[in-house]
Specification:
71 residues; globular
């Protein structure tokens, strides 16, 4: 899937959580991407982070996908 299509989808997810406070929205977006996006989709959007238009909360969530998860 193209990075632009993934960015569109991620921004749609961000709009769903936009009513929440910033930190909660970022956490919810990150959680959604981890649970419901295929690893290839997450890999593509993180690799092309500099090339796509993302809302600020979504960009922060995608940046967190690059970091190792603390469980």
């Amino acid at each position: 899937m193209s990075p632009e299509k993934l960015a569109y989808m991620a921004n749609q997810i961000g709009k769903f959580f936009a009513h929440q406070p910033h930190d909660k929205a970022v956490a919810a977006i990150t959680d959604h991407l981890q649970k419901f996006w295929d690893p290839r989709m997450r890999g593509t959007i993180t690799q092309h982070l500099a090339d796509v238009q993302l809302d600020p909360s979504v960009r922060e969530a995608v940046e967190q996908l690059r970091e190792p998860r603390q469980e």
